[in-house]
Amino acid sequence: MGSFLGGLKRTALFVVKNGDAFIAIFVAACVIGAEAFGEPSAGLVDTAILALLGAISIAILRDRGKSRNLDDLKRLAEDAVSERPYVVVWQENHWDLLDRQNARVTCVEEVRFTRQNISETFLWSNGPGTVERVRAKWRRSNRDTWVDGKKIDTLAVRGGTKEVFSFNDEHGRGDVLEWCVEREIRGQFPDVNEGVAVEAETKSDHPRSLRITWPPDARPSRVEIREGSRPARSLRPRTKNGRSYVEEKVAALKIGEIIKIDWSW
User: Which of 150, 148, 95, 100 is nearest to 125 (CA)?
Assistant: First the structure.
């Protein structure tokens, strides 16, 4: 008896939960039955069709509500995967190799915060060379003046260096700003075969841009790019103001995937 009542309860809950679908089925059956066994008036048919459309509309709105809930859960999961408190709207990376010993590395990105009460961020890097100068800055839009970000700590972690910066302000979910870090590095590219890499630490709304500019007297002989797990492909350097450069835009990277550009010179 208990199992019968339990089954009856589950059936009733299913009917209540999907009542709009059952209404649509009932109205459609009534219309078909009336057409088959009688001659219903045009007004009755129109009323039945309107009722059917109303039931279908309720079902569609209910499914849209579920879809929004799933989208919210998806955003929460992405935030949990990323250690960054923001997503990247766009990002530009430039390695300006002034000569074989000195390079200026710049990363500019527009970020949209996904968490509340954020007042600091960090930059992680590894590889040879000595960082001789770092400047971090931010602004709300390209119409505003840059505000300096203060470096508050440097940590040796994960085989590299983690530099922590303060915004000197607090930002919340939905806030958008441009964030720029410029570094002057000496001795970063000492070998014949060299390369640079960018890891997708967050999702990005638009393609990431990577640009490398070589010194006038040190043109590369081979350049190739590798995007995530996809096969490497060759790049053909172009020339501007007597210097060779490549510039690539890369989209659809998953969090944790790495873009690498290797060259020989």
Answer: 95
